[in-house]
């Protein structure tokens, strides 16, 4: 199976129950199975600030408790190294922006961005609105939004603002 392109995965609600039980262990499982890109970064986000180290410990504990495999060895070291954290709320997305930029810079090139929404449903709209601070509002080319119910897709109609570069892909928000 062809591996996905290089990605920065931005996980909103990264400190919540769903992320702890399912999303973080699931991402580790995908990494172990060779189903994540060869090179990727995962940037956790929530309103409350967390250091990268604290987020890595949070991920370790989540995987140890809810994962299918122990977070140890080379697989864990590689996964752990991919993790960072950037707090964000609608009035101050700057820490997240800095974390995303650092993750992209560490990969080099032009990695794609995948936004996974796992905050409460009422926060989906404001969270997506924050994307304009990342230069991605409404972008259907380099950014994608995922949530477990697909609710993020209907909130924003398809359009192509001037901030997006067109690679001909059809990844809609
Ligand atoms: N838990 C499950 O097993 C489960 C299963 C299926 C679906 N879901 C869905 O998953 C979503 C999250 O559920 P959860 O149980 O993980 O909730 P949770 O434990 O309350 O966690 C919510 C997460 O979102 C952040 N958050 C809360 N309010 C926010 C806001 N206004 N803006 C941005 N971030 C905010 C929280 O951190 P901060 O407070 O620091 O921002 C935290 O990281 C919900 O939509 C829920 O319906 C959950």
Tell me what you see in this structure.
The structure is a single chain. This protein has 173 residues and is α/β, with parallel strands linked by helices. The chain is 38% helix and 15% strand. It has a 5-stranded parallel β-sheet with strand order 3-2-1-4-5. β4, α5 and β5 form a beta-alpha-beta unit. The protein is globular, with a radius of gyration of 15 Å. The chain starts with 6 loop residues before the first strand and ends in an 18-residue tail after the last helix.
Give a quick summary of the entry:
This protein has 173 residues and is α/β, with parallel strands linked by helices. It is built from six helices and five strands.
Q: What key attributes describe this structure?
A:
alpha/beta, 5 strands, globular, disordered C terminus, binds NADP nicotinamide-adenine-dinucleotide phosphate
């Amino acid at each position: 199976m062809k591996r996905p392109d290089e990605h920065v995965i931005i996980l909103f609600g990264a400190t919540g129950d769903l992320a702890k039980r399912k999303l973080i262990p699931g991402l580790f499982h995908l990494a172990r199975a060779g189903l994540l890109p060869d090179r990727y970064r995962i940037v956790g986000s929530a309103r409350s600030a967390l250091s990268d180290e604290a987020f890595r410990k949070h991920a370790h504990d989540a995987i140890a408790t809810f994962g299918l495999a122990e977070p140890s060895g080379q697989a864990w070291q590689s996964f752990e190294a991919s993790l960072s954290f950037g707090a964000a709320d609608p009035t101050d997305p700057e820490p997240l922006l800095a974390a995303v930029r650092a993750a992209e810079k560490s990969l080099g090139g032009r990695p794609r961005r995948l936004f996974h929404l796992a905050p409460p449903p009422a926060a989906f709209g404001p969270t997506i609105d924050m994307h304009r601070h990342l230069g991605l509002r409404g972008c259907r080319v380099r950014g994608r939004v995922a949530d477990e119910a697909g609710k993020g897709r209907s909130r924003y109609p398809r359009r192509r603002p001037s901030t997006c570069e067109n690679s001909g892909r059809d990844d809609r928000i």
